[in-house]
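Bumping my old thread because nobody answered last time. Still need a sequence for this structure:
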């Protein structure tokens, strides 16, 4: 179990320079936006505009704060993503225009380099202890609205809101106990 505190996340400009990103983690360590295998970040979106394009990358997005966003992906009808919506996956090398519903948002992004890694992001609401079986090569837990106690049978830790915990594949299930009602994101990453 590795705990990353939100105060230590790296702040950086978007690839297209139109906003800022808070990078939670990237692999390999020190990778840039052009050569990562996988990347987890939060973005502050303050105005309508085009998303950065990432060749050969798949992306999943969730809205953490704000009222929501409409994504127009290529020629498809817009997709509305609200804070209560399930995470939405799409190709990051397709043109995407974002329209805010009513004011700025903060979103959570997971990106994996196609043919190197795959990912899955799950959104959970919890107000009581729950169990999660760790099955992916890397699992990242992020609690956005409450502190969260984690216990994997060997180690335990407490995450503050927006801190994250990293786990390698293991046999023991993980017990997640929210201190208050929590919105929890579980990100699973596996190499191909």
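Sorry it took so long. Here it is:
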């Amino acid at each position: 179990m590795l705990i990353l505190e939100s105060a230590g996340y790296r702040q950086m400009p978007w690839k297209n320079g139109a906003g800022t990103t808070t990078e939670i983690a990237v692999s390999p360590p020190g990778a840039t936006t052009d050569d990562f295998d996988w990347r987890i970040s939060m973005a502050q979106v303050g105005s309508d505009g085009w998303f950065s394009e990432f060749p050969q990358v798949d992306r999943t997005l969730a809205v953490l704060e704000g009222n929501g966003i409409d994504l127009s992906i290529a020629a498809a009808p817009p997709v509305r993503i609200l804070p209560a919506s399930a995470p939405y996956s799409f190709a990051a090398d397709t043109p995407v225009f974002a329209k805010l519903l009513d004011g700025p948002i903060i979103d959570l992004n997971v990106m994996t380099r196609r043919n190197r890694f795959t990912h899955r992001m799950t959104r959970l609401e919890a107000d009581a202890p729950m169990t999660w079986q760790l099955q992916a090569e890397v699992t990242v837990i992020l609690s956005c609205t409450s502190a969260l106690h984690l216990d994997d049978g060997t180690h335990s830790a407490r995450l503050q809101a927006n801190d994250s915990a990293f786990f390698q594949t293991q046999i023991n299930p993980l017990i997640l106990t929210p201190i208050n009602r929590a919105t929890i994101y579980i990100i699973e990453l596996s190499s191909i």
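The chain has two domains: 9-115, 119-191. Let me know if any region looks off to you.
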